[in-house]
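FYI - complex with zinc ion, inputs then prediction.
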Amino acid sequence: MTELRMPKTFADEMVEHCIHGKPQEACGLLAARDGRVVQVFRMTNASASPVRYSLDPKEQFAVYEKIESEGWELGGVFHSHTHTEAYPSPTDVRMASEDVPYVIVSLAQEPPSIRAFRIVKQNWMDSEGSIEEIAVSIEG
Ligand SMILES: [Zn+2]
């Protein structure tokens, strides 16, 4: 995937979830079809932290089942940065465990910025990897 297309209503829903989660980081999943977001899943930040996030495994499993049953694809894993730019932190790179778009919503400026990245590692256990940006186009 080189581009993630997102109808504005879903971008707004994702940002709203992130704002609602402050001062902690918020997170969630995006379902997509053919690279276009079709649903936003608001998830619990199981880390309940202002500087890191983790998905709740039970919630994550339920969403993966839903995506599978609908014939969708995992469009991305999103989380917020409350005070820093929309770019993967060293922790984000260390914690990356899948070749999926990692979408970051920065609330550090108004309006919030939304960017997406692929994090490529030789081995998912590695703490470092390379970061490739995926274009995000907000539609409508
Ligand atoms: Zn982060």
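The chain has one domain: 3-139. The mean pLDDT is 96.
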